[in-house]
Amino acid sequence: MHIYIISEQESLLNHFLAEIRDINIQKDRMRFRRNIERIGEIMSYEISKKLAFQSIDVQTPLGIKKTSVVKDPIVLCSILRAGLTLHQGFLNYFDTAENGYISAYRHHPTNDDFFEIVVQYQAVPSIENKTVLLIDPMLATGQSIEAVLKKLLLHQTPKEIHIAVAIATPEGIDYLKKHLPANYHLWIGALDDGLNEQKYIIPGLGDAGDLAFGEKL
Q1: Which domains does the chain have, with CATH numbers?
Q2: What predicted TM-score, i.e. pTM, was given to this entire model?
Q3: What average pLDDT values come out for the chain (217 residues) when binned by 10 residues?
Q4: 8 A C-beta contact, residue 64 and residue 57
């Protein structure tokens, strides 16, 4: 698997990552959502450097300019609900992309720390021979991303898959490396220390969905 950790090079990304972690700034939901969106925009720019481009001629009022544009059709697919704000950042840049949404959540059948990933709702366009960007703010165990990809790839084969997460753990990365093909691309905003006993990211930022949209029942 091709792995890119964007925060290893200093940029504004680190500024926005710092703000989404800050417990005082987190109290402003609008700012939290906007910072996640801006992280998506920066990640979009970085990912675009690895996409295929094609040359075109553009007619200007004064002549013709040879330039290049993204070659392959793109599908942005987010894991609900936490992925929505990050998704918007990607859509701001890949503004002609098709969009898909799929739900995944932790189900605790024995009412303890053990959980299973349940994938239910799916509204996704055709991904056949297209470039798929799978978007989720947090890569904790890696099980949600694996489960979602299994669902997406049941009957279709995309040309290329990029996974984009704002924050990841070493455990999540290792899990995806073991369970996903080597030609996938994993884009990470920042790499954190690891997981606690409940399999939440440490130091992380808390629940991205609750911080963006309010606590759920």
Answers
A1: 2-213 (3.40.50.2020)
A2: 0.91
A3: 96 97 96 97 98 97 97 95 93 97 78 76 93 96 92 92 98 96 97 93 94 88
A4: yes
